[in-house]
Amino acid sequence: MELKLFGISHKTANLEMRESFVINDDHYSYMMNLLETKFAGEIDSIFVLSTCNRTEVYSYCRDEDSHQQFFQSIYKYLGCELDITKNFYQFSGIAAFKHMCSVASGIESRIIGEKEIFGQFKKANELYLNIGLNKRMLSMYTDAAIKIAKQVRSNTKIDHNPVSISSLVLNVFDEIFENPSDQNIITIGAGEVASGVLNSLVNAGFQNLTFANRTPKKISLGNNISLSSRPLNKLDQLLLGQDIIISSISTDLPFIGKGLIEKICAYRKNKPLVVIDLGVPRNAESLIKNIEQVYLFSLEDIESFSNENLRARESEAKRAKVLINDLCSLNDEGLKEKVSRKELYSALTKLIQGATEDFKTKLLNSNDPVKALNEINDVEIKLPKNINDIESYALRSMIREIIDVA
């Protein structure tokens, strides 16, 4: 079995395209069902990283055919119609591992070196471990990627003078308003991006803040400040007194419509209104940009402010890539050996647990356990390919441990 990856990102597709291939918590049960039925024995585990700028699906897979079938199953389930060859990328083995480490380190990000992606990677890893989709062999790779990302960020200047979505949002305010901190601002959503923006606003001295969310939520911010959410079903009333609307919420369809914004503009007597849509899929209808007094910024618009940062960090990104290649090469052999032994242990456990006592006794007393396994005719045995790579004493020790536990 081998590490596999298929994904889509800002490098291969624009925002509108990426919206058609987003994996969220509504899809976990479907993926679990795939692993337990159609791909049982073919795919051991999966890990998905889904952020504003990318959706990547990693799997520990038996072969390329299973990997392609799994990709097609997800692709069709999401109703995606993008060009697979142009808008998606695929990697296997160490190339997939290097890409995983590059993403976690921030050098594949639209804003090179941004810190959010590392937190998002760790959070996604923990989530997929908890729900039982990332297990055994694949979890070794995700854990190793986190360690390597930490080393990269510690040994390069990739995250010096940090730029984030939150800081870029503040840059937009400075471009539009003479006194940004005097404006009334509402943020919608309680996820990592929305919480990060709220924290940045508080740290920058903004005070006229409102926070809306689907469910009741209290967010602790800097300077011993906390905000309790206002109900989203009162959104039309909440927006009336706002100068800036910032939204980052998970939704299949835009919920900030052109009609709602026109109503708000009429109430405001056509004062300028800023709408910053950080959602993927988008939270605001694109037609809003046609309203004369409204400034609508999408995630891609906001990130375009990072071009200066991109040029400043390109040399550090090159250094980081070299370091990742070296660290991945060093870790890959060790990971392969650990994964190989885990696969063998798992296969032997299944075999021994269903075996007769005579079979177990013969295994324990044999000086050549591989030969003994091959000589047993009354038990259907499917020996792992790597069994001949294990020293006899190590194999006997493994068998003894499994039988003692059984």
UniProtKB/TrEMBL annotation:
This is Glutamyl-tRNA reductase. Substrate binds at T51, C52, N53, R54, S109, E114, K115, E116, Q120. The lineage of its organism: Bacteria, Pseudomonadati, Pseudomonadota, Gammaproteobacteria, SAR86 cluster. It catalyses: (S)-4-amino-5-oxopentanoate + tRNA(Glu) + NADP(+) = L-glutamyl-tRNA(Glu) + NADPH + H(+). The keyword NADP applies. Pathway: Porphyrin-containing compound metabolism; protoporphyrin-IX biosynthesis; 5-aminolevulinate from L-glutamyl-tRNA(Glu): step 1/2. It comes from SAR86 cluster bacterium. Pfam families: GlutR_N, Shikimate_DH. Residues 175-304 form the Quinate/shikimate 5-dehydrogenase/glutamyl-tRNA reductase domain. The record marks H99 as: Important for activity. Its EC number is 1.2.1.70.
